[in-house]
Known about the structure:
The protein is an alpha+beta fold. The chain is 25% helix and 30% strand.
Amino acid sequence: MIVTRSWLNEFIDLSDVSNDTLYKTFNAIGLEVDSLKEITIPGKVVIGKILSCEKHPDADKLNVCKIDVGSGTRQIVCGAANVVHAEYVAVATIGAVLPGDFEIKHAKLRGVESEGMVCSSSELGLPAMGDGIMILDESIGALEIGKEFGEYPSVADTIIELELTANRGDCLSIYGVARDLGVALDKELKVFEYKQEEKMKLGIAREAEIHQEGEIDADLYYKLANLEQVHSSFLIDLRLAMVEESAEGKLEAMLKYAMHTTGIALRAYESRCFRTEDDKVRVIARSSKRGIVEVVGNDKVLSTVGVNQDEASKAGDKSEQILIEASYINPDVMVEAIWSAEESYPTDDIYYNTSRGSSPDLAFGLSFLSMLLDTYFEFSCYEGSLRVEVNREKDAIAVDAIEVSAIVGMEIDKSKIVNILQHLAFGINSVDETVISATIPLFRHDIKNVQDVAEEIVRIVGINNIEAKPLSFTEANRLNATSDRYKMKKTFKNRAVGCGFYENVSYVFTQKSVLEKYGFTTLDENLELSNPIAEELNTLRSTILTNLLQAVKRNVSYSKKSIPLFEIGAVFDAQRQQKEVFSFVFSGQAESENVQNAGKPQSIDFGTFVEKLSAIIGAFELVPCSSRNGLIHPYQSADIVVDGTVCGYLSKLHPTVQEEYGIPVTFIAELDLDPLLPKHINAEGISKFQGVYKDLSVVIEKSVSYYEVAKVIKGLELPMLKDAYPVDIYEDEKLGEKKSLTIRFFIQSMEDTLKDTEIESVMESVMGALEEACNAQIR
């Protein structure tokens, strides 16, 4: 965005503000200065009035001019073709030194004396304004013959180029920049007032009408005007050159100048493009989709609001009657619509402003443009306007002064926050002890939350004015049950991968007939999916195991010999109640082929599978299986007990299912995730005294399982008995229908070194309980 000092001065008094202060202030409020150029017009360049202009007697392309330069009349030879149309010009008199160290001296051109030079803009260090000399007018101020040209502030100006972030569309205008600058400098904006002379009392409704089609989400104002004669403006041409804008014709220059000044999107149409057979200007605003509003005349789309305009509909300097349009459309809605549209939309210069956020104050834009047209054109405007207006509600935001101070890093008084927001055009609804209820102006569509408001406060306070402090975190502790759950799931996954498993990811959908076939729960009929994504994924899964078996089957077809898979995911009961489970499947070889196993590894077995599960989920107990479904092997299965709670089961895959899937020996497990998650455990002391291991061999009936023996031992609740586990089972003909079971015990005291009598007491208690409950005998 390029601005000039004199242009800004039309809206804010900068008479007591130096360029250095401007530079620092812009940078402080986030409008970074990319370049600042002070234009200095050389001395002895004065305002001159051409008294006569005649052809050079010896050169067709030269003219001999008599020019009054205040101190006298000078004869100057000029080669610019447009000098014949000029009255007031900038004249470099004898002794002037122009840029490039070019000194003006007395000269003779083709035999004719010349006492100076009529200047073009580039010859004085001003931006190029086209071919030929500058033709001056009183748009820069009263023209006084002989007055130094550099004494005009709008000529010896300061050009400032600002780097704007994409969200600062509100500063894509002189007025918008002045508004921010005024807040930072604590200066009030000058009020723009213009009342148009009534040259025509005919109301617009007699000549024009507007119709809406669809739900319009754009604001549109239209004025109808007659043009009779067009004049140029040196100031407008100069300033457009300074901000690197070009225009084809004087009317387009006025439009661009008004838009750069006010930030309002402005267009001008040939009114005949809208004239119907009944000689009425009929404008149709049509919504083709949300964010796309088309302006239609005689069934032809003449423009898309904020995006483009048909070339044939554009008004020019030769137009006799024009329809002026001021528009506003929410940039977020429009840009999303443009990018998501199936057809591509060509864009013009206005799109750059509207896509970032043009000003919604359409009345201001039309009033400013009317002032320009009334000044430089023979212009008469119909009374009233045609309007399409959207009932826009400004977003409200609660601004906590304490929170803003914490974000900024220094205490900012609530009244100062209110003052800054008001100057930035925020509406203040209410103020209580610490919270300010404010409404966000429409031209700041980028403001969404209190952090954005804090950024505005920082800009105006000035980041250099914030005291440096050590970094501190003010955010509340976000660790909670959800984060703990996520962390533990990640830990489980890492452990599973460390044990050689691969993570499987599958849909929460599955085939209902498969669930029914293997006896799993299915959804109630009234809760079934109404629109499944595929025929084979027509219900919500109640187990992950069938999905994992499908994955095993695919891997077998790829010649994989060892297939360990796991998945953590959601399953659903008949009422669609959701829970998370941890599912495993291990199929084929227990390890890879290597030298140690001579290239013939064993298939996965019950013990190996249990060891792998234990390495992943931690310690657990196995008890007889209570779960029932078609995947479970009737003789090689068990429930998994963690902290006294049955949380799932493991099993060898039923042989018939293994055959149906065409896969090798396979083991499966599925556990509820919640019981596996760690709970808070109070720390317990450990003994500092040495413990002892004692083995006990007993003879019991073959039908008695170790599970029954373990229940008896555990039920004793002996304080010194810390652990017990089987180490050997032996059977032979001499024992008949009985078997020998060797159990290893670990005994330890918390209070003292163990005595033989204490050890014997524990062992006697164990043996007595086994004799009574299991009919055991010492071997």
